[in-house]
Amino acid sequence: MERRAFRVSGFGVLIGLLALGAVLAWAGWTAGETWLIAAAIVWGIVATVTATGFTVINPNEAKVVQFFGRYIGTVNQAGFQWVLPFTSKARVTLRVRNFETAKLKVNDADGNPVEIAAVVVYKVADTAKATFSVDDYEQYVAIQSEAAVRHLATSHPYDAHEEGRTSLRDGTEVAAELTTELSDRTQLAGVEVLEARITHLAYAPEIAQAMLVRQQAAQVVAARTHIVAGAVGMVQLALTKLREDEVVELDEERKAQMVSNLLVVLCGDKATQPVVNAGSLYG
Question: What pTM value is reported for the model?
Fold first, then answer.
């Protein structure tokens, strides 16, 4: 939708306007006082009309040019420029901007209330859409960002308790999904989303303590599982080594007793105290 508007260097037009004034003044002076006054009036009208086309454009800025309500193009070359007279020129910044959403309280995919916030980095890519497609593109980006964050939070759980399931804590995947969704939402407003990332993620205060206990329990179970698996492997290795080296012959009952003792030693939370058995196992 955006297109380039006609423009020339403002300094060139200004020099031409001064040169025209000099020529008219010389012609009027040589022709007489009446012609001099007429030349001055003509130059004043031309200068007034021409002056309405002057505009100054800063770096990373654009001017959307309208002629009596009709969009005729955009000028984004920095400097002193001249466009068609009697046009209105609306300033639109092309700088990279960022917006941080408020902390939103949303239920995640598992129904747990969470607090979430994100930062969005964006810039205007189409000045015509940003000016005419929406009332205020900054407010539009803010509202769409909050809507996208809410949708993201309800689509994924805070923690993934299943293999292959994406959670809100998976930063790279979630950021890519949020960026893609925001790009689709803001394309109508001529805005390009460069990056969107979650800046705050936590369980809501009313369930934070319970979820902390749950996480701690899950970690304890995982650690215990790893310890037991390692202990069983060590016991199996010990029995195999004793049998291969023919150190001692163990029947099934003695094997069971040895396995029990080794598992107690390897899986216990506290250091074990050795007990010397001077008698027989069967005594």
Answer: 0.69
